[in-house]
Amino acid sequence: MNLKSSLLFLVILITIVSCDKNRVFDEYKSVGNAWVKDSIVEFDFKHEDTVKLYNLFVNLRANQAYQFNNLYLIVSMERPGGLTKVDTLQYQMTNPDGSLLGEGFSDIKESKLFYKENLRFDTIGDYKVRIQQAVRQTGKIEGIQALEGITEVGFRIETIE
What we know:
By secondary structure, the chain is mainly beta. Helix content is 10%, strand content 48%. The chain has one helix at 3-18; strands at 23-30, 34-36, 41-47, 54-62, 70-78, 84-92, 109-119, 125-133, 146-148, 150-159.
């Protein structure tokens, strides 16, 4: 690739990324080659608007090493003042043929999973979101100790137009 092509690609990429006008918060954290059961991925953000509505998402990057049809997550959101709401969520991760759902051109697929829709933050201040995997094999009580295939966990907040 020559310099002119590289610059054009960079300009196009920056334009695409900067056009994401609904994004309020968007961050990813790596979990390595396997997401350990007791590893909690944490996101901190400050929110200052109590009028607008927002959609909240858990974003995941997964590869073909992911062995399950579904993904179970425990997601908690701590509001200013310490009040914490905990949800147990289930998401479908594969098609019936076993191929990963999500967007992407390579073997890594990115999934944008709804966490909360039409949420109005009623308190201004610092929030903390914690995400933990809770996948289990059928018929077994103990969860998967090291969930292979999930490489990054993200959290995103978007305004609703």
